[in-house]
Amino acid sequence: MPVAIITGASKGLGRALAAALAGRGWDLVVDARSAGPLKEAARELRAAGQGAGRGAARVVALPGDVADAGHRAALVAAAGELGGLDLLVNNASALGAEPLVRLADHPLDGLRTALEVNVVAPLGLIQQALPLLLMSSYLPSYEEFAAPAERTFHDSGDDNGEAYDSHPYTENARNAGLSVSPPYMGTGGAILNISSDAAVEAYPTWGGYGAAKAALDQQSAVLAAEEPGLRVWWVDPGDMRTDLYAAAVPDDDASGRPLPGTVVPALLRLLDGAAPSGRYTAASAAAATGEVSVR
């Protein structure tokens, strides 16, 4: 069975993606800072695999903080005990200020926390997980559980598609620097880093969080260039109705925002299509049709 680590999996997008993977036969290592909600999520994830007729998914739930190096090591060790690691999802996040405030008022300790959780911790986890990811036979093992999908990715057609280069290093990442070689698709594992439109747009009060996500984007792009044997995706999931957004902007009515589960089909599309490394958006319309917008 393929194995995934998903951080921040007790609720929101992390939990929704974990449930979808469990239903496809994946074994999971999941974490969150709160033990109670994580334990409840783990029960749901095991049932998701069983409900799909595959038997209960193996789920290791480890409460802890991704900013803690010992906790990160425990996550990777648990994946190794399940047989390896095929997908690492860096989903856990921190705003830096709750509610969000203008940069003039942003607490510096809060910014340090945002950078630690959104940038330093993902890299630390990637460093720990890299040996297992490089040994992964990700694509062959995954195709046993996923229906074949066309490797087609559709441009979003919005203004940002022209203003922002989705992955200026894609050619190097895919061809490993060989100008005459065909596109290189590694058979190792995949890394999915959850980004935000605040990484590329200047929204008032989102400066600290946006700066952290922008750093995560650049870190992901460099990683993709350095590790052509892996797939590295950094994805803006779009607006969602989550506890994180409620904490960021508590006075905003989020009832009309889509639930995190609506984004999951777009993320699965990356897996099914063996998408090349790059920055992707997963707009709600694209998620509903199974299409992924790349920008």
TrEMBL record:
It holds the Pfam family adh_short. This is SDR family NAD(P)-dependent oxidoreductase. Keywords: Oxidoreductase. InterPro entries: NAD(P)-bd_dom_sf, SDR_fam. Belongs to the short-chain dehydrogenases/reductases (SDR) family.
